[in-house]
Design brief:
alpha+beta; Jelly Rolls; two-stranded antiparallel sheet; 3 helices; globular
């Protein structure tokens, strides 16, 4: 029975449905993002992952635009977060420390939050006021 366990686990993992993926443009830089558009997906986010590929991230999508806050509980990798208004304007960029329960506030209304590997925004010279385009329009937000 123990010899079958790895096969069973592999088959279970293959059957797991991942998040939808979409390519956005962050101030002209293409970024492949997983879309977290349900309350469950937004709650889990990037928790328990040990790494994330370069030029990839997670886009959190909400129905409304209002001040937001994120924390890093159970998140193992250091991240940058950019809060975006409904038109894709970056209203705040901040660094977040792994496993921290300290809240990182948007301060301004945001409809989206984009998490990237720490240092990504600085490396690509992306700042507050820059635009994120090609945001998904055909996804159901719950």
């Amino acid at each position: 029975m123990l010899r079958l366990l790895p096969v069973v686990l592999l088959l279970a993992a293959c059957g797991k449905k991942g998040l939808p993926v979409h390519t956005i443009s962050v101030d002209g830089n293409p970024v492949k993002v997983e879309l977290a558009a349900t309350s469950k997906d937004r709650e889990i986010g990037l928790m328990h992952r040990e790494s994330m590929p370069a030029d990839e991230g997670m886009l959190f999508i909400y129905n409304d635009e209002r001040p937001r806050s994120f924390w890093m509980k159970n998140t193992l990798i250091p991240l940058d977060i950019a809060y975006l208004s409904k038109d894709g304007t970056i209203v705040k960029i901040a660094q977040m420390e792994p496993l921290s329960v300290e809240r990182t506030q948007s301060l301004y209304p945001a409809k989206y939050a984009l998490e990237m590997n720490v240092g990504w925004f600085e490396k690509h010279d992306v700042q507050n006021g820059d635009k994120v385009t090609d945001l998904p329009t055909d996804i159901t937000v719950e």
